Write a sequence for this structure.
């Protein structure tokens, strides 16, 4: 079975600084996707960034980038130039590349931005 | 921008009662999901639904649970006889396609279910 582990329940960062959220996963599959979802307080989860396992290049979306280490099964999220609006719960998630497969989530990291 | 909506935002019920959680997926989406998150724990998959039938269900999704798409817009989760351990946040999600690289699951804001 696939598992996703986020070992940092809480993180904080000074506004405008950079922060990295960690995620590791376990799978025997070779073709899958990894995601970071953001859940602001009392708001729905929204997709921040996705990584396809067969792509070696790390995904980037504006201030958000990932460090995908397939052999190590590691998928960290880097947020540059942190803004107050980045404060949220961040979930790492995994999905196999087959059909309409379910997402498997980590336990989340609560990110606080210090003004 | 289209959103997944869920009602109610908070449901309080007595143990043993039936509850129905409602979701309105994004209108052109074909794949529907329910997840739940017990307080302080991870978000867990319950069930996926496509073409008016269940595609996959987790071991959590036992005979007490059922899903339905009663009309063209709603997607419901029914818990027949609630237990204390069903207290959780329930998230509905929908996706347009079958899981290709650009198929994103869009989540609703959740329904907090409290079983007393």
């Amino acid at each position: 079975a696939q598992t996703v582990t986020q070992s940092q329940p809480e993180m904080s960062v000074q506004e405008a600084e950079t922060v990295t959220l960690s995620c590791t996963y376990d799978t025997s599959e070779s073709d899958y996707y990894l995601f970071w979802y953001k859940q602001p307080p009392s708001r729905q989860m929204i997709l921040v960034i996705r990584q396809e396992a067969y792509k070696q290049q790390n995904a980037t979306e504006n201030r958000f980038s990932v460090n995908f280490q397939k052999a190590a099964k590691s998928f960290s999220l880097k947020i540059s130039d942190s803004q107050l609006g980045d404060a949220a719960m961040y979930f790492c998630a995994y999905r196999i590349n087959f059909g309409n497969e379910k997402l498997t989530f980590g336990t989340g990291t609560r990110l606080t931005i210090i003004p | 921008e289209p959103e997944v909506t869920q009602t109610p935002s908070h449901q309080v019920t007595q143990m043993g009662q039936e509850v129905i959680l409602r979701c309105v997926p994004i209108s052109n989406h074909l794949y529907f999901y329910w997840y739940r998150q017990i307080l302080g724990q991870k978000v867990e998959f319950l069930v996926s639904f496509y073409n008016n039938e269940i595609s996959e269900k987790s071991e959590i999704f036992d005979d007490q649970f059922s899903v339905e798409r009663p009309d063209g817009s709603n997607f419901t989760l029914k818990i027949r006889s609630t237990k204390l351990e069903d207290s959780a946040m329930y998230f509905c999600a929908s996706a347009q396609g079958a899981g290709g690289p650009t198929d994103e699951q869009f989540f609703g804001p959740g329904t907090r279910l409290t079983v007393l």
